[in-house]
Design a protein that fits this description.
The complex is a heterotetramer of chains A (388), B (344), C (434) and D (341).
Chain B (H helix, E strand, L loop, with lengths): L1 H30 L4 H36 L6 H18 L9 H31 L8 H21 L16 E4 L2 E4 H23 L1 H11 L1 H6 L4 H27 L6 H16 L4 H20 L6 H15 L14
Antiparallel strand pairs in B: 1-2
Chain C lengths: L1 H21 L20 E9 L6 H20 L6 E9 L1 E2 L2 E2 L1 H13 L3 E5 L4 H14 L2 E4 L25 E3 L4 H15 L4 E6 L3 H17 L2 E7 L9 H8 L5 E5 L6 H13 L4 E3 L15 H5 L7 E6 L5 H14 L7 H18 L6 H12 L5 E4 L2 E4 L8 E10 L2 H4 L2 E11 L3
Parallel strand pairs in C: 1-2, 1-5, 5-6, 6-7, 8-9, 8-10, 10-11, 11-12
Antiparallel strand pairs in C: 3-4, 12-15, 13-14, 15-16
Chain D lengths: L16 E12 L2 E12 L3 E5 L6 H8 L7 E6 L2 E4 L7 H21 L3 H24 L2 H9 L8 H6 L2 E3 L12 H8 L8 H6 L2 H20 L15 H14 L4 E5 L7 H18 L2 E5 L3 H7 L2 E6 L2 E6 L1 H6 L1 H7 L6
Parallel strand pairs in D: 3-8, 3-9, 6-7, 7-8
Antiparallel strand pairs in D: 1-2, 1-4, 4-5, 9-10
Helix pairs in contact in D: 2-3, 6-8, 6-9, 8-9
The chains are: A mainly alpha (388), B mainly alpha (344), C alpha/beta (434), D alpha/beta (341).
């Protein structure tokens, strides 16, 4: 659709009037995959440099920042996956962390000394994604008949059940103690270590780039349109020939896939998997990331996830340590750790009140806001519009 | 009308007896005790604790379901409103100097009535205020936006109580002495449990009467049915929604007070867990349906206790949600929810 | 944009008001740096701290942190350690109010990256330790946990946590591992109290379940019977009544609660009494025996209610019939206007060990990097001994306390003018390490 | 085409009938919405369904479109019996759950108490279930024919009906409001596009070519429906009349044999009504479509219908050419002083 719009604008402005920047945009509009790669490369290089400058340098050293970016990357992956389910297909999933857990446990069980199986990291990325996708289908199947918020509560239920199963299956998953000594990725000549986050960083950037390209392509394909059609009006979609069941299941499966990837990555980075990493607060956080970023807009969701993670796990955690040496009267003496909830809560409320559509509403929403006048004849059906 | 009430009462009585027998059966399964009288005694004790827990869930679930019915919002802050209710009651009682059981019955009744009144009014106002500031501006926004502000409000309420009162559990005064007990089939049950059940039932009936028979109740129902049409008929939508929040939150406040009396222990984050259970109850019963919410609350209380009784305490949560999922697979709109077919 | 600025200003104001209200409630909250008169001439070193400090778990983390802070403040008043002024780099591993191994590892990386951090206290939860140890091990940072009791952190299986430097241990702890604490209470229940039929309940968390498992093993080995074993995940709205109802007819004569005060200990005792089982002793690990007096915020006796706290027994790691023990408690009270938590003293002792290691190795170390390594090596030199609030202690080569003493405590409701308190019953030595 | 105008006897069928409905009855609880409706639509005909409010027209439409299964009776579309009440439906879940349960049972028996082995078998069973259940729910053609061979029958769902060549519009417009006009039409072409998600992910030349071509075709449908140049407009921002046109364009994109139009001119001014009427006529002449129309506007109905069926209170009271219907006393009675034209 980006491509489509690009060509329309061309014809309006006239191809002769194109400046060099316009030409660049035009090029990227036509070759979106190249654009994504270029953008990710730019971001990947810029981020570690930006954090060298104040105020970011006051929070953490560069190495720790890069490690934080790895953590943020995990959540970006998760949010991108959830965006397929919630943002594109309009299925409110409140138990998304379950697939994260399944991905992480798949890696934890098959690449540790717990069972004595040591499958290498790289094939496990695919295995973990596939297993998560299978579970996405398995857990999605009972929800197919449900609408809106009934779906939400059932997915929430699955999100609760999965960690309980991992906690109580002592013989299979080492129960509440989790699996320690999980393998790190390995590549000849490169050490993936706790104090060397760069290999992880590169891996994450590559993974994200690939996932972004794939998601964009899917979104603009027949399947992506079917997802959006279901989100807008399930009945009309079915009456246009969309098999709502397969389409929904594919949304669950694809959403779970990226969280499976995220799970494998997280387990190998932390070298430890335990049930207490996947509580429902994780699901809620991911949902908040998707909505804050701007549901349905892939870039928006990615940025939203990144920002929320950095705020929650870095800024709020290090704020006290950051402000103390500055000796600002009063501010420096507050222990911000105690007010994390308050600050995060205020941030959530304020952001939603100021930008109900999310930080970066999808382009169709923007168009809608700009052209909202003159549809006083709109049908009453609009109020029943699901989710979006 | 009388016939309907009579039928409802009969069904309720039947459900109470059947669930009692069921609980005794489950107790037998769980304990495998040879002594029949032991099984009956344990089963009866369990039954009353299920009723008590269920009553609290039911009261919270009512607020969820009312709000959902009228603006289709999963109000995740509702559980925290309940928590604030528990703390308001705690502050009232302790500031009046009552830290423990009150021996004088008239004084006890007076203090309890005062507590209920003040807690419910304060919480009602809080609920309406939350609606005014966090949800009303988003009424025409995408549907998930208020869900996120609800989560934000929940965080704010938790943190405020944590900072202002205590970051660890606080012993809430148990005004009704647990020494008042009655013995039934060998089980010694605190009178408080029965009292809680009765208070909950009275509040629920009052709500039914209010929603069913008053002008405001009619306004609420019509707003829930079709907001535009209600507005055209002269219903003040904003006021109606605010009143819905007021009533729902007041009920949650009452639940908070009851919870404090029953548990004797309150903590700033108890709302999220209880709220989640109550929300589950509301959905189980059929969200938007007040009788369903009450039914769902009792059902969840029952399942939780049954899980413990049968020795599956570790799977308690999983069982609650498994039952929910099973029910929804076969009745996609909950037990009493309107099974809306696909409309053209 | 203006709208945004305005609302953020409102938020900030609200925050500041709250902070002001809160000021006198928890004096431990504010500045984390030592405010001592002394301080060193050589500069500053830091002790890293990772604890759950927000949400639900702040009730665990804050008293523990206060213990560390007290030790650091006192050291700074006496001229620091080894000529250095001591500061604390404090990290919170709770995300959305729950301890999170992922955040723990992130925090550990932050601490490791701070060159001034030469020793670390924490974490609180064993699962967080499992994600932190690989990080601190790689950096060679000495880490002392006041509360981790999982067996595999130091003993069999601990090599899994050190993939990078398997031979260079850095993690040690002062808490008695599950396989000491659980059996100790089992023996106490079986022999001293003469109870043969136990009801065992745990909180399904790593600590609670681990210690309850060890208790169960030992109790059965001694010849005891287990009436029923339950696990009740703690949530803030948890209810124990039905658990106790269901076990009443099985006639247990002792209850073992695997868990801590924060994961439901006090409430469990209260509801147990209310279910009519008050005559049966309630026993538990150090998470129960917080040694706080009745009425103090969050203490076991406060939450169970002093009337319900009779016949409650708990184990505490370490030697406790010391004059310095009560001395610590009064100093803590003076500093923070509240009783110490279950792990305050032990965290204080952890800090004392690190401070001693710093001051003794400061002379030999030329820079922070070598000081960090020297501190680590010092702690794992089994010949060193430390004078701490827990008495004279030393460590085995695996990082467990050598003089593994377990003290038994009992609640005496008549203490503190009827508010209740814990009294020392007896202590018992165990073979430490392996 | 030369059938008599009698209402009572069944309409004779010819091999070229697009739709044959046999004694369709639909009950909602105690309410009989449709009673023994016999109905035939000959190929390339424009057939109208009229009747007073609540006569059961939309219900009949929804039965044909696969939205609600009939209580009894059946419907054949292009010679395929697709819609009828379910038969032996209880057998189907047994088919789904038997294989995984069997695997689990074997696993328990084989592994002799080793919990890890049991769990492995359990996982295998789960895997099997995850393969079977979604397949069964998605109901691909081979699955459908397999269960029919076992004597199980389930009424076709809306998307199956679309596959067999029926496109529809809705009485109260149901567009994909936050999608552009072009995208709405592209969704309508869903079943006509062949590229798989894998094609899309890999962006194969086949996929790109198909997408290019689909956009061109979609634009043509828009043009046909009179929406030229509005490709990029969000559906919700289109004026009311254009929304109706867009719905028709979307239905056309399904490349139907039979087009179901539910009150296509409702709420339109006379000029727009005229345009839509002309469009419907062109659909038959240019695309060779068969059209079933529900309409209140008698001028439209009388103007373009080949045959008209009149429903009243769930029963078919008349059937015939516009002339015959205009004169039918029962129809006049049903409309009670609301004479046609």
């Amino acid at each position: 659709m980006t491509r489509q719009r690009g060509t329309v604008e061309d014809s309006e402005t006239g191809a002769t009037a194109l400046g060099s920047t316009d030409r660049l945009f035009d090029f990227f509009g036509r070759h979106r995959s190249v654009a994504i790669m270029a953008a990710m490369l730019l971001v990947a290089i810029a981020l570690p440099l930006i954090v060298l400058a104040p105020p970011f340098s006051g929070f953490n050293t560069q190495g720790v920042w890069i490690d934080n970016f790895n953590g943020a990357g995990i959540y970006v992956l998760l949010a991108l996956g959830l965006n397929v389910v919630v943002g594109l297909a309009g299925l409110l999933d409140l138990g998304y962390a379950a697939f994260f857990a399944i991905g992480a446990y798949t890696y934890g069980l098959l690449a540790s000394s717990f069972y004595g199986i040591h499958v290498p990291f790289w094939p496990m990325l695919i295995v973990g994604a596939l297993v998560a996708a299978l579970f996405g289908i398995a857990l999605g199947a009972p929800t197919l008949r449900l609408r809106g918020d009934y779906l939400a509560i059932v997915t929430l239920g699955f999100g609760e059940i999965v960690p309980v199963v991992f906690t109580n299956s002592d013989a299979l998953t080492n129960g509440t103690n989790g699996i320690s000594g999980v393998d790190r990725p390995s590549l000849p000549g490169i050490i993936f270590g706790a104090s060397n986050p760069v290999p992880f960083y590169v891996t994450m950037v590559v993974m994200l780039t690939i996932v972004l390209i794939l998601l964009y392509r899917l979104q603009d394909s027949r399947l992506g349109r079917a997802w959006m059609a279901i989100r807008e009006d399930e009945l009309a979609a079915a009456s246009s020939g969309v098999n709502t069941i397969t389409t929904k299941l594919l949304a669950f499966a694809l959403g779970a896939t990226t969280s499976g990837l995220a799970g494998v990555f997280a387990a190998s980075r932390l070298v430890f998997v335990s049930p207490d990493q996947f509580g429902f607060t994780v699901s809620f956080t991911i949902l908040a990331m998707v909505v804050l970023g701007g549901m349905g807009n892939i870039w928006g969701v990615a940025i939203g996830a990144f920002v929320v993670f950095i705020v929650q796990s870095v800024v709020l955690k290090q704020l006290t340590n950051f402000l103390q040496p500055l000796n600002i009267p009063f501010l420096s003496s507050i222990d911000f750790l105690q007010y994390q909830f308050l600050l995060f809560g205020i941030a959530l409320v304020a952001m939603m009140l100021l930008r109900p559509e999310g930080l970066f509403p999808s382009s169709r929403r923007r168009r809608e806001l700009h052209t909202a006048q003159g549809d006083d004849l709109s049908s009453p059906q609009e109020s029943a519009e699901p989710l979006t | 009308m009388t016939f309907r009430i009579l039928r409802l009462a009969l069904i309720a009585a039947g459900a109470l007896v059947i669930s009692w027998l069921l609980m005794i059966g489950l107790t037998w399964l769980g304990t495998r005790s040879e002594s029949f009288s032991n099984v009956v005694a344990t089963g009866t004790a369990q039954y009353f604790s299920a009723l008590t827990i269920g009553a609290i869930y039911a009261l919270i679930a009512l607020g969820y379901t009312m709000v959902y019915g009228i603006i289709e919002l999963i109000n995740f802050a509702h559980g925290d409103v309940f928590m604030v209710g528990a703390f308001v009651a705690y502050l009232i009682f302790t500031s009046l100097g009552f830290g423990g059981a009150i021996k004088s019955i008239p004084l006890l009744i007076g203090i309890l009535l005062l507590g209920f009144l003040v807690t419910m009014v304060v919480l009602g106002v809080l609920g309406a205020a939350i609606e005014r500031f966090a949800y009303r501006p988003l009424r025409n926004a995408p549907r998930l936006a208020p869900l996120i502000t609800a989560i934000g409000v929940s965080f704010i309420l938790q943190n405020v109580v944590q900072v202002l009162i205590s970051n660890s559990p606080v012993p809430s005064p148990q005004l009704v002495s647990l020494e008042y007990r009655f013995t039934l089939l060998g089980a010694s049950v605190p009178l408080l449990n029965l009292l809680i059940f009765l208070v909950a039932v009275v509040l629920m009936i009052a709500l039914q009467v209010f929603v069913g028979g008053t002008r405001l109740g009619r306004a609420m129902r019509s707003t829930a049915q079709d907001r535009e049409a209600a507005q055209l008929m002269g219903v003040n939508i904003n006021a109606t929604i605010a009143i819905t929040f007021f009533i729902g939150s007041a009920l949650a406040g009452a639940a908070g007070l009851i919870y404090g009396l029953y548990k004797g222990n309150i903590v700033f984050n108890l709302g999220f867990d209880a709220g989640l259970k109550a929300f589950t109850a509301a959905v189980l019963g059929g969200i938007g349906n007040t009788v369903g919410a009450a039914l769902g609350g009792f059902a969840i209380g029952f399942i939780e206790v049954a899980a413990v009784t049968t020795g599956l305490s570790r799977w308690q949560e999983a069982l609650v949600f498994s039952v929910l999922i099973l029910v929804l697979v076969f009745r996609p709109a909950g037990i009493l929810g309107q099974q809306i077919g696909e409309r053209a | 944009m203006q709208k945004f600025l305005r609302s953020s200003a409102v938020g900030l104001t609200l925050l500041l008001v709250l902070a002001a209200c809160q000021g006198n409630n928890a004096p431990g909250g504010g500045s984390t740096s030592g405010s001592g008169a002394g301080g060193g001439s050589k500069g500053t070193v830091k002790i890293g701290v990772d604890l759950p400090l927000s949400g639900n778990e702040v009730a665990n983390g804050q008293p523990t942190f206060n213990g560390i802070k007290l030790a650091v403040d006192e050291a700074n008043k006496n001229g620091g350690a080894g000529g250095y002024k001591i500061e604390i780099n404090k990290q919170d591993d709770a995300v959305n109010g729950v301890h999170n191994p992922d955040q723990g590892a992130t925090n550990a990386k932050t601490l490791v990256a701070d060159p001034a951090v030469v020793g670390m206290v924490g974490p609180f939860n064993s699962n967080v330790a499992r994600s932190i140890i690989p990080v601190t091990n790689e950096a060679g940072l000495a880490e002392c946990s006041p509360s981790n009791t999982a067996v595999d952190l130091t003993k069999t299986g601990s090599d899994k946590l050190r993939p990078q430097n398997p031979d260079k241990r850095n993690y040690f702890r002062l808490a008695a591992p599950d396989d000491i604490q659980g059996p100790a209470m089992a023996a106490f229940d079986y022999n001293d109290l003469g109870k043969k039929n136990a009801y065992i309940l745990d909180d399904t968390e790593a600590f609670g379940k681990g210690v309850a498992d060890e208790f169960q093993k030992a109790f059965v080995k001694l010849g005891g019977k287990v009436a029923k074993r339950d696990g009740q995940k703690y949530s803030a709205s948890v209810d124990y009544t039905s658990l106790f109802n269901s076990v009443k007819s099985l006639n247990p004569d002792v209850v073992y609660f695997g868990g801590t005060q924060v994961t439901g200990g006090g409430l469990a005792r209260k509801q147990m009494v209310q279910a009519g089982m008050g005559a049966i002793p309630f026993t538990g690990p150090d998470g129960i025996a917080d040694l706080g007096t009745g009425g103090s915020q969050g203490a076991f006796i406060t939450l169970a209610g002093v009337d319900n706290s009779h016949d409650v027994y708990g184990t505490v790691a370490g030697v406790h019939d010391l004059p310095s023990g009560s001395d610590f408690s009064s100093r803590y009270k003076a500093a923070f206007q509240n009783d110490p938590g279950a792990y305050s003293a032990i965290a204080y002792a952890c800090t004392q060990v690190l401070l001693k290691a710093i001051s003794d190795s400061a002379a030999s170390a030329s820079d922070m990097k070598s000081l960090r390594e020297a501190v680590r090596a010092y702690v794992f030199d089994a010949s060193k001994t430390y004078d701490t609030a827990l008495g004279k202690i030393s460590f085995t080569s695996t990082g467990d306390i050598k003089q593994a003493f377990i003290s038994f405590y009992k609640v005496d409701p008549s203490l503190n003018g009827g508010k209740g308190g814990w009294t020392f019953v007896k202590q018992q030595a165990f073979e430490g390490g392996q | 085409m030369t059938a008599t105008a009698q209402a009572a006897p069944a309409v004779p069928e010819t091999p070229d009938d697009v739709l044959i409905a046999r004694s369709i009855t639909k009950q909602f609880g105690g309410l009989v919405a449709l009673r023994n409706i016999e109905f035939v639509i000959p190929r390339r005909a424009i057939v109208s369904l009229i009747g007073p409010n609540g006569a059961g027209k939309t219900t009949f439409f929804n039965v044909i479109a696969g939205l609600i299964p009939p209580t009894s009776g059946s419907i054949e579309l292009s010679g395929m019996r697709l819609i009828a009440p379910a038969r032996r439906a209880w057998l189907e879940p047994l088919l789904w759950f038997a294989p995984p349960l069997l695997v689990l049972l074997i696993g328990i028996l084989v592994s002799g108490g080793n919990i890890q082995l049991v769990a492995l078998w359990g996982l295998l069973a789960l895997l099997l279930a995850t393969l079977i259940l979604p397949t069964a729910m998605a109901r691909p053609a081979w699955y459908e024919s397999f269960i029919r061979r076992l004597g199980i029958f389930r009424s076709a769902r809306p998307n199956d009906i679309v596959r067999s060549g029926v496109g529809r519009t809705f009485q109260n417009i149901r567009l994909f409001h936050n999608m552009t006009a072009l995208e709405n039409v592209l969704v309508g072409m869903h079943l006509k596009l062949r590229s798989t998600p894998v094609d899309a992910v890999l962006s194969t030349p086949r996929h790109r070519a198909e997408e290019e071509e689909a956009r061109v075709r979609a634009a043509r449908y828009l043009e046909l429906a009179g929406l030229r140049g509005r490709d990029d407009e969000l559906a919700r921002n289109l004026p009311y009349g254009d929304q109706r046109r867009l719905e028709i364009a979307r239905a056309l994109a399904c490349e139907p044999v039979l087009l179901l139009l539910d009150e296509p001119t409702a709420g339109m001014n006379p000029r727009e009504t005229g345009e839509i009427t002309a469009l419907i006529g062109r659909l038959r002449t240019e695309l060779g479509l068969t059209v079933l129309l529900i309409e209140h506007d008698m001028r439209v109905v009388m103007g373009i219908s080949d045959r008209i069926t009149v429903l009243d209170q769930g029963e078919r009271i008349a059937e015939g050419t516009p002339e015959e219907i205009r004169r039918n006393p029962r129809v006049i009675e049903a409309y009670l002083g609301k004479p046609p034209s």
